[in-house]
From TrEMBL:
GO terms for molecular function: beta-glucosidase activity. It comes from the Bacteria. InterPro entries: GH (IPR017853), GH_1_N_CS (IPR033132), Glyco_hydro_1 (IPR001360), Glyco_hydro_1_AS (IPR018120), Glyco_hydro_1_beta-glucosidase (IPR017736). The lineage of its organism: Bacteria, Pseudomonadati, Pseudomonadota, Alphaproteobacteria, Sphingomonadales. This is Beta-glucosidase. It comes from Sphingomonas donggukensis.
């Protein structure tokens, strides 16, 4: 393997999301979110009985959790704000007690010299707004902008990196097209509308930030590079459609102000004509883009539209969520981003894997060799992209803790820190020990 190397100020961190770790979703005057509803509805939630009611109890353990981050050596921490803690109805009245939690979190991080990266929307829309149509309501862009303004005004002095949305594709595909995620709709006509309003909301929040914010703001997308299974023309066309649907549907409007042509082909009569003004609103200057990378996809034309899992490859390793381990995809997508959208600071805002971890050893250790191997290969993949001239500024491991993996519940463990959900005991796994060394040596340990 070629030697890895990272810029001196490379930002090493870990990521979480509010509903997945906090617990106490209704504490201190918070309004319920769509995930509160969804996880309590046995008709909708796949992992029945698993909810975010307690999760990692981070809401009550924030101080000791930040101390643990410090002990691990994290330089940055990416978290999300539960919109409904701050605005219980989604708009209007601010709940000072909810906002205070995030002010304390940010102050504690800074006191430990850990840089906060704040994501405004990681899927937990206030239920009161879903009652008004959620992301299908064109007013949602303005609701989000108002919420964003509250957060910027409260915290921009202390938070220097902001993220508008986490993974609009997952919100739409899971929430409005396939129904596996909140709010659980399955409607091809809704999907493009939800996507478009999410992107309008992103654009409006960036506009507000340019009025009241002084630091940096960006968008986080999940990118899954698509590779044709064969060199047939049909597979090439199917690959282009899959890439347009999952990857370019969000980056093209944000970066170029246009939607990929393939979306008309994919959605047919469900694809609306969008006003030109909307496209200008969506395309705002960004300070960075955050990329979440987990896997790739190999596309065959004969599989059903538009997402297909691709053939299972005998020569590949798969994670517990069924995702192929393919580190080269991370290098490829970073180089692709630069070629298509030009030079912009990039952060890996999520990367990691769920594996069955063996039971704790007698000395309490959690040996997770598969995750250790996954991480080493992906660190090297980032280093390769940097060597090829891509401006990657940091890496946030998904995830700090084992947590509520959305509709899959607590069965899928992504953490570098093991959480015993009965006792809330935290135990750094071998992968956390590796990561500490990687951070302490800025990656040099990987060359030993
Ligand atoms: C991301 N896909 O979700 C989320 O940002 C996290 O909250 C989540 O826990 C993590 O990845 C692991 O799943 C994704 O199907 C969900 O391509 C699905 C996909 C990608 C990302």
């Amino acid at each position: 393997m070629t030697r890895v190397s990272f810029p001196a100020d490379f930002l090493w961190g870990a990521a979480t999301a509010a509903y997945q770790i906090e617990g106490s979703p209704l504490a201190d005057g918070a309004g319920p979110s769509i995930w509160q509803r969804f996880s309590h509805d046995p008709r909708l939630m796949a992992a029945k009985g698993d909810t975010g009611d307690v999760a990692c109890d981070h809401y009550n353990r924030m101080e000791s959790d930040v101390a643990l981050m410090k002990a691990l050596g994290l330089k940055a921490y990416r978290f999300s704000v539960a919109w409904g803690r701050v605005l219980p109805q989604g708009t209007g009245r601010v709940n000072a007690a909810g906002l205070a939690f995030y002010e304390r979190l940010v102050d504690t991080l800074i006191a430990h010299d850990i840089e906060p990266l704040c994501t405004l929307f990681h899927w937990d829309m206030p239920a009161a707004l879903d009652d008004r149509g959620g992301w299908l309501n064109p007013d949602s862009a303005e609701w989000f902008a108002d919420y964003a303004r509250v957060m910027f005004q409260a915290l921009d002095g202390r938070v220097k990196k902001w993220v508008t949305l986490n993974e609009p594709w997952v919100v739409t595909d899971g929430g409005y097209l396939h129904g596996a995620l909140a709010p659980g709709h399955r409607n091809m006509f809704e999907a493009p509308i939800a996507s478009h309003n999410l992107m309008r909301a992103h654009g409006r929040a960036v506009q507000v930030y340019r009025e009241v914010g002084a630091h940096q703001i960006g968008l986080v997308v999940n990118i899954e590079p698509k590779y044709p299974a064969t060199d047939s023309a049909a597979d090439a066309a199917a690959t282009a459609r899959a890439d347009a649907y999952m990857n370019r549907q969000y980056l093209d409007p944000a970066m170029l102000g246009t939607y990929p042509d393939e979306l008309r082909e994919i959605f047919g009569e469900a694809w609306p004509e969008w006003p030109t003004d909307d496209m200008a609103l969506i395309r705002q200057r960004l300070d960075f883009v955050g990329i979440n990378y987990y896997t790739r996809n190999v596309v065959t034309a004969d599989a059903s539209w538009p997402l297909n899992a691709g053939p299972v490859r005998q020569d590949a390793t798969y994670t517990e969520t069924g995702w192929e381990v393919y580190p080269q995809g991370l290098t490829d997508l970073l180089v692709w981003f630069k070629d298509r959208y030009g030079d912009l600071p990039l952060y890996i805002t999520e990367n990691g894997a769920a594996f069955y971890d063996p039971p704790q050893a007698e000395d309490g250790a959690v040996h997770d060799p598969l995750r250790v191997s996954y991480l080493k290969k992906h660190f090297a993949a980032v280093s390769d992209a940097i060597a090829q001239g891509v401006d990657v500024r940091g890496y946030m491991l998904w995830s700090l803790f084992d947590n509520l993996e959305w509709s899959l519940g607590y069965s899928k463990r992504f953490g570098m820190v093991h959480v015993n959900f009965a006792t809330q005991e935290r135990t750094p796994k071998d992968s956390a020990k590796l990561y500490s060394q990687v951070i302490a040596t800025n990656g040099a340990v990987l060359n030993d």
